[in-house]
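Sample intake sheet
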Amino acid sequence: MFDTAWYYGPDIPNQLLAEATRPYADDLVIATKLGWEYDDGGRLVAAHTPERLRAGMERDLRLLGTDAISIVHLRWSSDRSVSVPFRRALAAVIEMREEGMLHHIGLSNVAPAQLEYALTRTEIASVSNSYSVADQSDRETVDYTARHGIAYLPWLPLRTGSAEQMRRLSAWGEAVNASPAQVALAWLLQRAPNIVPIPGTTTVRHLEENVAALNTLLPEPAMCELSAR
């Protein structure tokens, strides 16, 4: 799976992805996010109206050079209620799926109530929220998605935590011969079977280090200590 990172803006990641992977393999899953865009001043602003969502969808299709995207996440703002704008935005994404512009719908930066509402309207393939050793506030959503067979894609999985959390990561890294980052990713992978971390990276070395976390097995005491609130 490739995730086009919203915080870099869509153009460059989508262009690089298209250059690197076209023609697309049948089993390639491309996941994008709609709901935010950069204004003329370079600031990231919400774009939740049906018109802005459709414009973003058409832009992503054009940049990726495809007729449909595997998974499109509706990325929401700090408003965590099931508001009229949320319902309208979700309806717009459902409509675009019915038109064949995307195959599956995901949600990002949403609260449990918004996820539960969305499931009354459509199937949800994945949820992408902030979750890590340093930020475990979304544990309710993690457990809910695990119970319902929904993929959970934590963004900022390597978020820097407190000095105590870093001490724990370093200590367990020494114990299992892994870096603190690998321990943080291994904790996520063992936290729930539906978790698919999406760490950002700018070097091949970091990419290889992140992938190696798949081979890092944390003992139960490590899982308990790192899960401590």
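Comment: The chain has nine helices and eight strands. The CA atoms of residues 187 and 224 lie 10 Å apart.
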